[in-house]
Design goal:
Helix content: 25-40%
Strand content: 15-25%
Number of domains: 2
Oligomer: single chain
CATH architecture of the largest domain: 3-Layer(aba) Sandwich
Radius of gyration: 20 Å
Strand order of the largest sheet: 6-8-15-9-14-13-12-11-10
CATH superfamily of the largest domain: Gcn5-related N-acetyltransferase (GNAT)
Structural class: alpha+beta
Amino acid sequence: MTIAPFNTDVEASETAAGHIASVISAGPPDRERWAAIADRDPLALPTHHPRWMDVVTGAGRMKDASRSYTFDDGVEAVLVMASGSRNHRGGPASLPLGWGIGGAVATEPLTGAHTAAILRDLRNRTSLRTTVWPAAAQGAAWTAGRDALDDTTVPIVSVPRRAHVLDISGGFDHVYQHKFNKKTRRYHRLALAHGVEVEASDDGRLAPVLHELIHAAVPRWAAQQNEPLWLARFRANRRDPLTKFDAITRGMGSRCRISVAWVDGRPAGAKLYLLDRNVESIWMALDPELGPATNAATALHVEMVSTACELGCGYVDFGESGQSKGLEDAKRRLGAVGIDYESMAIERLPISRVETAVKRLAKRAVGFRDVEHDLHADAGHAETGHAEASSAAPAD
């Protein structure tokens, strides 16, 4: 199949004249209908399914704020949203930072006319701020929808993003030979030569290994960012406690896999990813010495892609890459294509501007240095968890 993000002119052109679809009905989604739509949508990711919302509302202590829409052309859509976390500031979000990729699922491909109607509905609601950080595969439709709105009474603040997506619909042999580049294939052979053995499980028993690798890197993150160690540890424990990984593995069951690259009984790296119709690469953490020395990251990526191809998945979303050249190059070696898109915040008050100013002042006060990190840089949000972990953490 051809993945939509590689052909996005349709969404933009259909909304060039400012057409906005009419909403026949809007409100909380029926769970069974939501699941059916998610199962049908070829672009849907695991975090777009109601089973993921159960994880978010449980472990994340949030409320399901998702919205269901029926349009005048018969298209049905569900915007996946949550709100109410004590760790989330500013109102409903699709999805809150640290909880995967947001956006909508639909019975037909969404155009800018549909997303414009959704954005107008959100803007008419009472929240001070509502954020939408969609999957890159949906990005063009959301940008076209924003451009179709001419009423600026309630501003929509957009932030440029860049993510990478790998089409795996041709099967593993095709991906390995024609998508992975020569370096990736060579790194994989070297990993095998170094004795890397990848163990994968969907029962959660490997979660402590991943958690330990992530949190063992905290002192390095703190040093790189000139951040007090106690603060770095506090933020890491708050963002990614072991209970969060346990909740994800329990809630997603066979749709969540954790893989560990072992070398002589030592973990060189670990990875967590979600599988359904498509794949969401969530976390990866490497031992700072053993991981690079044994090409463990490549072995973990190959295992994920092989498993996804075996299950018939369509594409892998490697998540936000930001402006990191290292992440860009690593994902391109795997055959992933970079997609520029935007996240959006509908704000009745200039919350984003104030938050940015406060963060800037706080960082200046402690001498904090912003560093391009790999943690959470492969799935989800790179700033605090639309991403993949390696040997460094994002500054939130």
